[in-house]
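Listing S7. Sequence submitted for prediction.
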Amino acid sequence: MPEVVLQGVPVRFPFEPYDVQKTYMSKVIECVQRGENGILESPTGTGKTLCLLCSTLAWLEIKKAEHKSRLQVSNTPPKIIYSSRTHSQLSQAISELKRTSYSHLRVAILGSRGQMCVHPEVSKEVNNSTKVHMCQMRVKAKTCYFHNQVDAKKDEPELRQGILDLEDLVKFGKKKSFCPYYMARDLKQDADIIFMPYNYLLDPKSRKAHAIELQGNIIIFDEAHNVEKMCEEAASLQIRSTDIALCIDEVTQVMKKFQDISEGSDIAANDSQGLPEDFNPDDLYTLKALFLELEKAIDAIQLPADGSGSTFPGSYMFELLEKADITPYKKIIILEILDKLIQYLTTNSASPFQRKGAGLQKFSELLQIVFSKDKFSLEHMEFVKQCYKASCYIFMSVHINIEEQRKKPGGREEGWGAPKSNPINSKVGRVISYWCFNPGFAMKDLSEMGVKSIILTSGTLSPIDSFTSELQVPFPIQLENPHIIKRHQVWVGIVSKGPDGFSLNSSFRNRSDPRYIASLGQTILNFSRVIPGGLLVFFPSYSIMRFCRDEWQNSGIWSKISIGKPIFVEPQTKEEFNSAMEEFYIKINDPTLKGACFMAVCRGKVSEGLDFADRNGRAVIVTGLPYPPFKDPRVVLKQKYLEEIRTKCKQGLTGYAWYQLEASRAVNQAIGRVIRHKDDFGAIILCDNRFSGPDFKAQLSSWVRPHVNTYNVFGPAMRDIIQFFKNAQTLLPQPAAKNKGQPALSVKYETPESTFQVPVSAHAFQADSSRSVISESTKKKMTEALRKESDYNAVWSSMNYTKSVGREKVSMGDNSIFSALEQKSSVVDFNACSVSSQCSSDYGSIKIQNKKRKIKLVPNIDSVDSANCGEKQGSQNTMTHILKPLNQAESSSPDMIGSGSSSGSQDNITCGQGEFLHPAASIDGHVKGDVNCKPSSSRTKTSDGISTSKKENGDDKKLSSIAAYIKEVKSSLNKEQYAEFSAAVKSYKQKKDYERMVDILASLFIDNPQYHRLFRKFEQFLNKEHRPQFQETCSQILPQ
């Protein structure tokens, strides 16, 4: 492995480092040697992570050797604390560490209980605060088996010798039956390098909870462009009137418990847990009085009638709490009582209907943030109160506005799932926002913990002067690195007008103009036809992206883009996002396509830390400047704060300059997705004429600025980008083509005959979509048909294919929800499997015939959400995939199959060994419904050759009802919740345990008012003797 000496430190690198990497590592070593802070910017694709790890660990090896030679016992060598924003970024860093020669050093990674808990009961809890208290109670009582095994298993060779990321540690914990969360905390004591999300460092509460030792250690913030925001968030909080009301309600519930015990009621006598000795009735009366006074003080605040809210200085929060006799000196006592109450409510709430201390937990967090200093002094209080004076940098603001009432289904107001007479709902509430506008508040607190050095690094920190001025901590060592690429590897163009000559400007005034939307769509369409591989399109916000999507689908632009590049839209949930990314990679490597298009938002998941190297991302289009919402109270107050500081201190950013920087940094982060290594190439297209302003050009990353060209006419831009890709593909080495895409995330759904896999659909924002079971040749011919149908506006891409989950046939003797749930789940790989050329009414196994046979594919509007493919035929290498409904009766049900017959004329498309009818397109361009196999005759042959007719009986309606309910439940719950639901239903069938069944249903459906109907509708599946009891339960716990 090559070795280079930098600042007197020999650094081993996996390959011969480039000059920019040597410069970067030299600055890192300078920071740790001198014990000074550094802020280092190096463009994405220059190997920052690898440089950080190799340079710091090379220095650490020398320090450890020096420490060992001097036989020092009192002082230990420093540790490297490596932090990034997300766990996925940390996993990437650990993967890089495994490539180095420093992988022998001891490594630890910290995560939350939500990510690492393996206890079967605690891990099911959705609320994080409740999960924490459930865990702490079991640990304290020594009743958690997994925690009790930590000491016995901590010397396992895999833990001490190997490098485990978070997922590896959790898997190993399950295998060896120990707690990964507490094992990670134990491993960090002896670790040389510790990985963690950087909110664990910036948030004092998290820092204390994870027992993070900072004295004398090196702290690295990778992807540090988000540090400012995280610092502000760590010192900010919102609390509502309903939170205070809930606190009163929770304390009252415990007080009633005391009263029941004192009166010797039957309820108390049956309570085996009783009440703890940690608090008494006097504590509860005092606490309730505090909350009542605070509620009274909040309700007395006068607010303007226009709904704009009122703003006060940060000191107002002290005054408000003081009206309820809550002062810094009582902080510790109040927090102790709150903690004991929360733990009691958490551990004694066996039923999901009972309170679990959510309100008390929120109030506890408020006190910890407002009275953040462990040793709170009058001087500190005055320091915050005097925040408007010239010499003070810390600025807090209290903004109070009307609390929006939550709505019940049907438009009625809802409050905490209680009847309308509940006092919680009787008043108009307020939202109290306690906002910190100075990131230096958290960063200064961190630097005062005795750290040796703080290193901030990212590809988008410029302008560095303004970045450091806000953090209020000196950074004497700074670096702005150039990129390693050459001029012919990047094309940057500001395109001011579309192909129709209309000006491209996404300002608030223009963004809803149909002419602008059409011109932007035509611009993207034209570029998509000449850009090879992956195309990333970034919008300023989700709302703008949705609006453009709807307009382009109506106009036909969307379908025209998707002919050459299937379109993926960035979802807002983690599960859907992972699926979308997997399918995007698959389409990029599909030789029958020209790549794929991913539409995303600035500051979203796609713009943060994802790798779109080579064909995965050949161009990025930014459609507008992603300014923060200018009327948002927090944005307005942030600008006001900066203006106040600049006026009084004669230094720092103006409010407008900060507003501009917020947009430019988001743009710089988005365009950094394209060029990922020294041989990569790509285009950056800025489609907004405001990008051509001198102010914005100056705020682009330093490596981008020399390449910028401005185009006032669209034609030259198209000419130059075509020539750029032609030259790049000639001059630069091309990555090897992949036959297969990245491995897709799969859900397995097993049948007795066979097992299949399918990547979960990237349907993203499409409300109605369909997924057809077709071969690659079929897809190709369908695409050709689409080219000929100029008026056909449907989106024919992977986004139209929803996940299909197959079900086995249910015997006619047991048409119930229990039987419908007894099958194991499978997902079909529609990209790999072929379609049987024959169908029968029972969808049995039929061997493929060589002759062509028509199979009609019709939209399935309200059908069960799945259909399953096939059975094994002939040899092991031959698979015939056939769609199966729940049973024979289902095939005759219009609700399960779709419309009774296909309406309108449709073109037959012949492909492979069967003919397919093109799915009907809706008016708005969507392909509606799941595509199911529909027999062309009501009289067919079963697999054993016996001729039968479709049965029409009372079972059809019941099966349809079961399937519709399962579909609705499945679409409402995540994977883990649905598994819990399925297990509970099966258990109820076997054991008739009504109480357990209802408890689990409530835990899944009660918290979200939108799911209350699912709770009620389960009555039809209960045994007759349990239905009256269930009706009574519904009337007690659900709003009327």
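Caption to Listing S7: primary sequence and predicted structure tokens for the chain studied. The mean pLDDT is 75. Residues 241-263 form the longest helix (23 residues).
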